[in-house]
Task: structure prediction
Amino acid sequence: MTAPNQTNETIEVQGTRVPRLGFGTWQITGSDATEAVRDALEIGYRQIDTARMYGNEKEVGAGLASSGVDRSEIFLTTKIFPGEFEPDDLKAATEESLRALGTDYLDLLLLHWPDPDVPLERTLGAMVDLREAGTIRNLGVSNFPAGMLSEALEHAPVFCDQVEYHPFLGQDRLLKLARERDVLVTAYSPLAHGKVPGDATLTEIGEAHGKTAGQVALRWLLDQPNVSPIPKASSHARRVENFEVFDFQLTDDERAQIDGLPKDDRTGDPDFAPDWDA
Result:
C-alpha cells in the first residue's frame, strides 16, 4: 500500500535537496528494521535515518535493497558514536557502516553526540576528508546546542544538526543560527515519545482538519524553514499516518497556539549529554 498523498516535497539546504519528511529507525531492530524500512520506502518516504549505536545498520541496508527503490532516490543518514572520533577510528567506522548498509556512499554522516575527549577540529577534519573522497556527500552533528554548532561551523561545512525537537521543546537559538548559516535541523522524537497524541491543544487542532494530534505536530515542524522531522513508527498504520501530512495546512492562529505551548520538556537527556544552554 502506498499513501494516497505520496509527495516528492523536499527542502533545499546548501544547494542539496533533502526529502522533507524522514523515517527514523531508533529502537527498531532485527527483521523488524528490514521490514520497516522496506515498508517506509513503499509508502513514499525517501529519507532514512539510522546510527551505528542502533545496532540495525545491516537490517536497514537489507530493507533498502529489498525495496526496489533506486539508491539515488534515497537520502541515507547514519551516525558515529563518541569513542570513534579520532580520525583513523572515524574513517574505519564509516567503512564498516557502508558495508553494513550495502552502499558505497552516505548522503549524510553525523557525529551522534559531542565528545569532549577528542578535539572537534580533528574529527571534523576527518569528515571533510571523507567528503572529498566521495565516501560521504554531507557531514554534520547531532545533539549539539547552538554554541557547539557555532564552533563546529568554524572548522567545517556542517550541513546538519540533528536534535530533539517537538511542540513541547523549544530550539529557538539553534534554529536562528541554522537559518543564518543555512544548516538543516533534523527533528528527532518529533512526537515527544508519545506525549503529542494526548495533548488537548494538538488534538483539538487536528479535529478541525480531520487529522490526529501527531499529524498536527509534524505539520507544524514541516512548516518551519530548515526543519525536517524524522518520526519513528513501528507499525505500517502509524508509518502511513505520519506520512499523510502534506494534504492540509495549519492556520496562523493554530500555529500560534502550538508556539504557545510550554517548551521545556526534553525526553532525551543522558548523563553524557552536553550543557544544552551552551
Notes: The first strand starts at residue 10 and ends at 13. Residues 16-259 form a domain with the TIM Barrel fold (CATH 3.20.20.100). The CA atoms of residues 107 and 137 lie 5 Å apart.
